[in-house]
Amino acid sequence: MPLDRRRFLYVAAGAASAALIADPLGQPARAFAAAPSPLTALDAIAQAQAIAKGEATAIEVLEAAIAQIERLNPQLNAVVTTDFDRARDRARDVKLQGPFAGVPYLLKDLTDVAGLRTTKGCRAMLTNIATTTDKYAQACIDAGLNVLGKSNTPEFGMSCTTESLALGPCYNPWNLKRSAGGSSGGAAAAVAVGMAPIAQGSDSGGSIRIPASCCGVFGLKPSRGRLIGSTDVYGFGSRGVLSRSVRDTAHALAVTERSQPAPGLKPVGLVSGPSKRRLTIGLYLKGENGAEPTAEVADAVLATARLCEELGHDVKMSKIRFDVSVSDDYHVIGSRRSTETIADLEKKLGRKVTLQDVEPPLLASAAHYRDGWDAKFDDANRRVQQVSADINEQMQQYDVVLSPVLRTAPPLTGEFSPFVPFDLLVERMISYVAYTVVFNVTGMPAMSVPLAWNAQGLPIGSQFAARYGDERTLLELAYQLEEARPWADKWPPCTVVKQQG
Fold this sequence. Notes:
This protein has a single domain, classed as Amidase signature (AS) enzymes, CATH 3.90.1300. It has helices at 44-52, 58-76, 84-91, 135-142, 185-192, 209-215, 246-256, 295-310, 326-349, 360-370, 377-394, 422-432, 437-442, 471-484, and strands at 20-21, 30-31, 79-82, 104-108, 146-151, 163-164, 168-169, 171-172, 175-179, 198-203, 218-221, 238-243, 280-283, 314-317, 400-404, 446-453, 459-466. Strand 1 and strand 2 form a beta hairpin. By secondary structure, it is of the alpha+beta class. The strands form 4 sheets. It has an 11-stranded mixed sheet with strand order 3-5-4-10-12-11-16-17-15-13-14, with helices on both faces. A two-stranded antiparallel ribbon has the order 1-2. Strands 6-7 form a two-stranded antiparallel ribbon.
């Protein structure tokens, strides 16, 4: 099927504090908010360079981030635990080392740092203080990143939104009535407004890519087994970061990848820029279970496809075949994880958990496993392995594939809340995330690139996935897209500093 060749006019922002950017969906030009401050407007590498050159001190950069958190977090609820005093002590250390030396950093509230609270979004863990530091977190610290707090996450990271009963909703900075996505919603919202230039996420079903799309930032899920301490027991999960620039993510990948990657992987190293290689890109719009994107999402992805063609790539309409429902099986497997999560929590508490401790969806998921889904587990696990092999085979004809990240623009807060009946919640999730889960099942790298905003000013990401182990191709393409259609100067309305007088 030939692609629509319509051209769009993009108005360069130049050095203006508020940029008029023509919407790639063909909407009238809109004014994006001004950057919040000179220091928080910098990406992580630029902040590190400024510190290294003596243009700013680590404490000045940190205080700018803290000021941004104190100003905006009451609206967004993106940061749920702070560690400002220890961060200040680290910022005063004259022996800062690493490519991110002195750069403020947020860890997701699923990740342990000794002496800092880890709640995992669960009411029963609101007073839990970690006694050890996670290996991935330590690798980030060793690279010079200065942890100043924890970002909001749903209970145990088990949702496509971020609105736990323990921590409260994280709101989308582009529209405070909308979801920031999940489960790394706090990280994405914080990065979008400059609370930190880079923040840790994790992705077991789309949890980096979903909030990246919702909040208009860049998010890469690395290949299974790529990063230090990055894979869960079921092999679906990976760590990663949310960032405002491709180079920040590329540097973060380089400093956190394993020295001896999993079998089948070669080290990526630092990807420093675009390639001149002409890619074959497979474009598909229909997700699993026959899900179709809304018109504005389809238009956004088609605009991305046209941009890829203009950059010299060969874009082909494709149809990635889903022979079984990946998400249905994913939720069956997830129900077993729910029973294990509850068992671990009960062991920690020394008693049975109740609805005063955990949310209804977690208990309902575990109940489904005990009441029959356990009999489906082995077949579900076998099918997702077969799907992984099938998708890997279909990918051989493409360098990357392009699709929506999500079926719709960011939904209203509450559509995926813990109060939604479990069966309806699962049904909604399967429809909403019909494009992300498959790449957790296959273990392939995938990224959300912020290339479109709709008429209401909400971001719509485009998802690219590559063959297993080929993060380099994704990052090189991302550099090219970032250069062709920059997003770094786009700031949510809530970041505007009102002038006095």
